[in-house]
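Minutes, methods subgroup
Present: GH (chair), OT, SY

1. OT presented the first of two proteins processed in the latest run. Sequence and structure tokens recorded below as shown on screen.
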Amino acid sequence: MSPLEPAAAAFSSTVFDALPFAAFVADSDVRILATNPAARRLLSGGEVSDRRQRYGEALHCINSGEGCGKSAACTDCVIRGLTTFAISGGEPARSRARLEYHDEGSVQQMYALVTASPLDYNGRRCALVCIENLTLLLSLADAMPICMGCKKVRDEGLWMQVEAYLDAHLDLKFSHGLCPECSRRLYPDHFEPVVEGESA
């Protein structure tokens, strides 16, 4: 073992624990082998049993009543599918998902961006699975009041252009252009007239 290997392992562990989103190492059956603090807060209210629970059991997924991976709905599980793909295909995969789970007697929903990357963990082929919670982000746009006339949106009592709103909340930048309909409407001298019944 080189002198750098313990330092590299300590650094990797520090980075894993510092991730602001849930991250865990899973085997091909989505059994949890390691978790970071954010994952421990998400899974089982902060506790993952030492019996290597499957992801759906630790999260109390609504489909894991018979056991994670045993219901018909499990065949469409994004986390299971991405984990399998990353382990067998040897490359990262990412997808959005709606996760439903039991929490204190009620069903909760989380909209998430799930990423699975292949990882060699203790000599085994596994996957590093990251779950980024997009619920708050999507709720910003879920019921956005928009003016029927000018298309400005209301944010905390102020009306602003959609571009300004998205830039402020999502750090999205826009470039501008003209669609064919607006081009014809604004610059009719540069286009031949459209015959009724033809598409622009």
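2. SY then presented the second protein from the same run.
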Amino acid sequence: MMDKSHEQKSAATYLYPPVEPFDRRILDVGDGHRIYVEECGNPAGQPVVVLHGGPGGGSSPMMRRFFDPEHYRVVLFDQRGCGRSRPHASVEANTTQHLIADIERIRAELGIDRWILFGGSWGATLALAYAQAHPLQALHLVLRGVFMGTRDELAWFYGGGAGRFYPDLWARFVDAIPEGERNDLIGAYHRRLFSGVFAQEVRYARLWSDWENALASVELRAWHDTPVDYARAFARLENHYFSNGCFLGEDGQLLAQMGRLAGVRGTIIQGQLDMICPPVTAWTLHRAWQDSTLRIVPLAGHALSEPGITAELVRVMDGLRGVYPGR
């Protein structure tokens, strides 16, 4: 567990200095999609692929800074439909299976044999799904704020569970929907996010995105107006995936197929006060995964930028340098 004194410092205290990519490329993955890929750090170092959250969150320069640039070869990319990938906010040919295939395409394109998977929230979901499909390529999984795409998790966040703790913020999310549709908020928002009326899509995209962003951090529980382009991609992609059970087949499939990760090690970092992805999911995953370690961070929420979460992730990646020395 983390020393509580870490919570008094900013996340930047623990991060490595900013680095610039040594390679950037746009990869045509078919189906009309072109995805942005970048590499930074040591070109001959231990490969690690960063899987951003959402779906629809996109990568950012901050995500490069969790890794010792002298040791790691860090691969970041924007998943289909978001960030610098195109077409923007598109849900066509955009499923978990497409994303898994994209990750494999990137690995082959970059000539990487095995790599560490680093992902939080939806990125943790995708890391698990990819590793279960390609266990021989998964060297180690580092997961944060675990989400496994189940109905129970979606019911917690979009069915009023989290709203019981923040009724004022919940009301802003719910009040935009007529009473007769509030029994299925994901469906109600879906109709508006895909209405074909841009102004309406933007309005509801910001409401959807702001509800999640408001609960990401322990320190700051406030409603912020999310930038339009980001909000529209984030909300449409999340809603698309959540409306389809994250394209994972049966409910609870990731947990049911943990046997596929026999021999693959993982480290789970979980904020004790995570309101978006409560710790019970990380605990359940850890109990089903013999080769995993669970680290609960006290006084920390969901966000990657939470100081305690940031510090623990950097500590884990520094520790893995001795386990996986690279080439």
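Chair's summary of item 2: DSSP finds ten helices and eight strands in the chain.
Next meeting: continue with the remaining queue.
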